[in-house]
Amino acid sequence: MLTARRSLGVVFLAVFIASPVQAAIIGFTVQFTDTFVSLNNDSDFADITAYTISIGDTAFNFDRVTSGFEFAGSSVVVVSPDAVDDAVRSDDLSLSFENFFPGQRSQSIVDIDPDSGNSDVCCTIYGVMFNNGDAPNAVIAVTFSNGFILDAEIPDMDSAAACSSGCEFSSEFDLPEPALPLLVGSMVAAALVARRRSS
User: Fold this and answer.
1) SS3 34
2) What is the rounded distance in angstroms from the CA atom of residue 8 to the CA atom of residue 125?
3) Which element (helix H / strand E) includes 40?
């Protein structure tokens, strides 16, 4: 004969196994044209709070970045390099955000220059951040409001001509639905209460 504690454990296990595990998506899509980087929040529930993307070929750097939102109430801050031509340079483009909700997009205009100096007409994203021979490709790391960081290396794209109208790369991760831990927690609490009563 099962005790109250054991029977509750059996019920808990049966419900846990029988319950379909729902998942929520954390994800982004980054789009590149010759001088633009756009980031879409593809998540089901989490805001994007920041992202960093490396230059790829470190013989070049980000010289100037201007960024914006197409949604009122959302804001972006350029952490590095800066918005001034030939001032602060960086091998990483870093942005932070307020109210970058799921379904929204932020767009940045980037000026890439060689490490050797400033150039008004120099370099496009294609051939520096990816499709750059033996140099490493750019790596993007996106931080979400739940603390999750999704990072990925940007792959080589088909052609420079294709990228002039926009190359895209997407990454996503399935997270357990937030309600599932609450269900498990409440069942464990019920089992503890039943155990105390049977003692």
Assistant:
1) coil
2) 60
3) strand 36-41
90-112, pLDDT tens digit by residue? 999 999 999 999 999 999 999 99
Q: How far apart are CA 156 and CA 62, in angstroms?
A: 19
pTM of the model: 0.74
Q: How far apart are CA 182 and CA 180, in angstroms?
A: 5
**Mean pLDDT, residues 77-87:** 86
The secondary structure of 85-121 as a DSSP string is TTSS-BSEEEEEEEEE-TT-EEEEEEEEEETT---SS
Cα 188 to Cα 178: distance, rounded to the nearest angstrom: 17
Question: Phi and psi at residue 56, in whole multiples of 5°?
Answer: 90, -95
Hey, how many other C-beta atoms are within 10 angstroms of the C-beta on 170? Answer: 12
Q: How far is it, in rounded angstroms, from Cα 162 to Cα 168?
A: 10
133: left (phi over 0), alpha (psi -120 to 50) or beta: left
Both tokens assigned to 114: 């060689």
Structure tokens at 27: 């994800």
Omega within 30 of 0 (cis) for the link into 114: no
d(CA 150, CA 160): 26
